[in-house]
Structures are given as C-alpha cells and as structure tokens.
C-alpha cells in the first residue's frame, strides 16, 4: 500500500482522490471505493458491493520465488542427488528392511533416471506454454472471509468424525504415549474413517493455502474467529499426524502455510538459498519425533542408539521405495490388468473403485511386497509407478503429461493467480517426495484439487495484469 501512496503523492498536483485504504481490521488491504481506483465495478459482480471493498492479491511488488521452488531445479538439484544416494546405499541396507535382494540393476536405475528426465521435459514444456506475467487478483473481502469460514468448518467437522471415536479410546492413546508398540496400529484401526466424507479433512490444506495467500499477498488481517479456526485445524492435524501415524499430514499443513510467504516475502539471501537443507533437517527432526511413538518401542532391542535407528529408517524410506519400484518392475512390470498406483483417484474412489478393483483383491504391488520385500515399507517409488501400471510407451507419455501439469501449476504460481497460489504448495510437496510416491495422483490430493476448484468458483476472483491495474489507478476515468 505504501508504493501506491507514493504514486499518489507524485500525482497529487495533477489530480485528487487516488487512494487505497484499508477498510476495517478484517478487510485488510481493501479498495475503499471503485471510483477512486478508476475502474468500473462492471469488471465483475463480485466487486459490485463497494461498501465492503476488495482484497487485491499481488498488488505489492514482491521478489521472485526462490530457485528451489522451481520444480525443474528442485528435481535436478534436490531430488536427483537424493535418488542417486538412496540407490547407492540400497545395496548395503536392503536386507535390513527385509528385501530379498537389491533389485537396482543398471537397467532399473536407468529406467528411474529416464522417467525423471521425461518428467523434467514435461515440466519445462508446461511452464513455457503459459506466458509469464505479473497478475493481480481482486476478490470481495466479505466473500473471502465467508469462504474461509465455510471451508474451515468443513475441515473441522471431517476431523471430528475421524478423530471423534478416539474419545472412547483414551486408554489406547495413553498406551501410545507410554510407548506400547501395538497401540499405534490399533488406534489407526479404530479411527472413524468414512470413505468420501472424512476425506474432506484435506480441505484443511486449501484453507491454509488460501489464508496464507491473502495474508502474505493482500495484507489481509484475519479476525479472531479466523485465528481460532486456524489454530483448531493445526491442532487436529497434529493429532492426526501423531495418533494416525500420518506424518505427511503435518508436512501438508506446513507447505500450505509457508510456501507462499517463503516465495514472496523472504528476500534473496544465503539463508533462503540454503532453505532446502534446513528443510531436510527439520523434516528429519519431525520424522524422528513421530517414529519414537510409532516404532521405536518395537525396534529398540535391535539398535544401540535411537539415532542409529532413526537415521537408517529415515534414509530407508527412500531406498526401499526405489528398490520396491525396481523389483516390481522386473518381476511384475506391465502385467497389471488395471492401473493401480497412478490411478488412485479412481481405483480408491468410493463405490467406483470397488467396481474397478474389488475389495480383497491383492494388488500387484502388495503381492510383490509380501513375497520379496516388506509391507511395512510399501512405497512404490514415484519414478517407477507409471511403468508398473502401463506399457512402456503409455507410461512414458504419462510422465510427460504429469510434468505438463506440474509445470503449468508452477507458472500459475509464478503469475500469482489465486488457483496457482492455492494449488502449488501441494504440488511442490509432491514433487519433493517423488522418490517415494506419485503424490499428485494419490487419492489424498483429490480433495485438494476439488477444494481449489470450489473455492475459486465461490470467490469469483477478477484477475488482470498488474501494469493494467496501475495504469487505471494513475489515469482514472
């Protein structure tokens, strides 16, 4: 808002009335009246109620996103080195994770690199298909707050259904805290999962991403009820991560909250450049805290120290994912009658999924894990997943198309469109975890994509190039 005020000062001798005022604590950075900005409310019915004003996302000049937020650079400089290190160390520790052998041959290692190269190609093309531009998005402040409240309540109600059953299982929760090895699996079994209903807990990621975008990019000042709702969502997400052993849930919440501020608030510096390293350390710490309750009580008799256990287990999740994907490709690859891994949106969808893949049927990957590996380490390896589901040609096309989607979402994020800002935190999280699984195609991301579509429709945003809006401000009608 300061830069607009300075512009107004320069124009004060020529004209009067150029101002952008905050209207009320909850409205934040708002348009006090349409005529003062010089653009007609006919731009959108969403902005016709000029008494409430509008939040303008992206009006303030911001820095470019950090280099590691670019999916191509993240893949080349972060994912690729981890993939190679995990593949190398797999030969030394595969037996520790109950795998029958090291399935990483030159052929399967090369397939993983080839799959990664196709993904990078798709991301590069997908990014270039959209023009790079500086976009500002205007949304009605009152409507934005109502949408936040609505999607927040949906999230909280879904969590209440999921975790509500634990009220009668306090003894199990206490046993988990005491370190009972079997309490964790029993807690996961008694959770009140309702297919298609409790999945809406994933709307929490959309809620946090939207709130982060409005606060970081539009100077929105949330009222008390929004803060209370946000804290509530974070608390139940933490409970889900601990009691349901879903560490990924907490990572999703953190990505939704901090990807946007890191991209557009944090000025370029050495610390911002090293943020991926700091992030890996923090993820390791969070992983170590979760595994203490999840599995340490069972494995402590086999290790001299907790650090030895947790470091091996942390890197083991990457190496076993690669070994699983390579082994399943060698033994079962391209023999699956129905795509299982990359089509989770469909095969695990309520009712429809049971028709396509009847309940109780062992999947190809499950068969491999039971015979040659361990069901405990069941990630299929994201760079191999498509080649387990389809023929070589179709799988290669799938990787390119997936890259096109990721690249397109990143370009929208660069352009600061509301859809890009809400969606890219989930896409970026999935990109950094591609060694383990195809997160974007996982069933848990379907509610995220659905939530972004619903929120964008409900907000009725008006987007235009930033220079056009500034020109309108300077030259009022």
TrEMBL record:
The chain crosses the membrane at residues 72-89, 109-126, 147-174, 194-217, 224-243, 249-266, 273-293, 384-406, 418-439, 445-463. Keywords: Membrane, Transmembrane, Transmembrane helix. The keyword Transferase does not apply. The keyword Transmembrane helix applies. It comes from the Bacteria. This is Oligosaccharide repeat unit polymerase.
